[in-house]
Amino acid sequence: MSERSNTPPVPDVPATDVLEHDLEHEQVVFANDPASGLRAIIAIHSTALGPSLGGTRFHPYASTAAALADVLALSRGMSYKAAVTGLDLGGGKAVIIGDPATQKTEPLLRAYGRFVESLAGRYITACDVGTFSPDMDIVARESTHVTGRTEAHGGAGDSSVLTAYGVFCGLRAAAESVWGDADPAAVLSGRTVGVAGVGKVGRHLVGHLVDAGADVVVTDVFPDALDRIRDEHPEVRVAESTEAMVASQLDVYAPCALGGALTDTVVRELSARIVCGAANNQLAHPGVEKLVEDRGIVYAPDYVVNAGGLVQVADELEGFSFERARQRAAQIYDTTRTVLERAKSDGVPTATAADRMAEQRMLEVGRMRGIWLR
């Protein structure tokens, strides 16, 4: 199934509001190739820790301003994700404006590859919503700064495998912090976990949860995704809607689809003790993390737990070893525990604790390195 089921609706934001809100990026490049129909934006947030790495999102944005708002937020998140995960990489992201189902072509992808190459390695691209490993193989025909390629071309293949595994590791850490008297090997057994979005990542996460003995309920806007889950895991329940699932009795809520999933309304309705999912930018607005904390909900910050995909494609830069990448993704368990412990000791929301850890590493290491150049 297409990862388009994990595509969040992006608000149509005035360009002036976007620029006034976010002027911290090192470099933002607009790419336009009329011959192929390419319209893209590449945003490099930081190279303090190394070259920026982040996927290419192919999405039919309502406007250029909406695309710009998305790529700025996503690239910033990649900087924090790489930093808190301990990688020597910066944060970048790219968006291609258009419908991948009808507009994705070899000429367009190759034109995009030439723009990536023009940045001389300051940005390394990979897959994201609307793009897949075979697409990266085409981009790589024009640029050497590509990861997330197919296994046939020496790449890591589908990064959703370790993304889901990392989320599961982070969820175990969060569960142990909440139900600490439980057997660590069975801490999720019998717990009700609601997974919103069972595309590439959510599907793999459901498999881990079922194996751990959890009672899993799922939602997705695409019937094909739900049918596949029913075929693979007949014991999994399907809710009528995400809203109905959120309002039901849950122990864990795992947003794996839409960005901005944690709105004030959702947080007030949630019965879950833990929020831990694969979606990016789950907090709908600044300040909602305080409401989460006030309600006694343990939030495992999204960019901490969903870093397994980044770990996987980053490992490809060394010559990919799945087992090595899996061992590195398993460390998300320890990182999540550290974030939760620091939040408790500092008396701050977990999102703030994670930000502080990432910013501290970018500052301390970046002070030695400065802006990355080839």
Description:
Belongs to the Glu/Leu/Phe/Val dehydrogenases family. The protein has 16 helices and eleven strands. The chain has 374 residues and is of the alpha/beta class. It folds into two domains: 3-149, 3-Layer(aba) Sandwich (Rossmann fold); 160-307 and 333-351, NAD(P)-binding Rossmann-like Domain (Rossmann fold), CATH 3.40.50. The strands form two sheets. The chain has a six-stranded parallel β-sheet, with helices on both faces. It has a five-stranded mixed β-sheet with strand order 1-2-4-3-5, sandwiched between helices. The longest helix has 22 residues, at 64-85. The radius of gyration is 19 Å and the shape is globular.
Write the layout of secondary structure elements.
Layout: H1 15-21, E1 27-33, E2 38-46, E3 52-59, H2 64-85, E4 90-97, H3 100-103, H4 106-118, E5 123-127, H5 133-139, H6 160-178, E6 192-196, H7 200-211, E7 215-219, H8 223-232, E8 237-238, H9 242-247, E9 252-255, H10 264-269, E10 274-275, H11 288-294, E11 298-299, H12 302-305, H13 308-316, H14 322-330, H15 332-346, H16 350-369
Domain Glutamate/phenylalanine/leucine/valine/L-tryptophan dehydrogenase C-terminal: 157-370
Pfam family, one: ELFV_dehydrog
Organism: Nocardioides bizhenqiangii
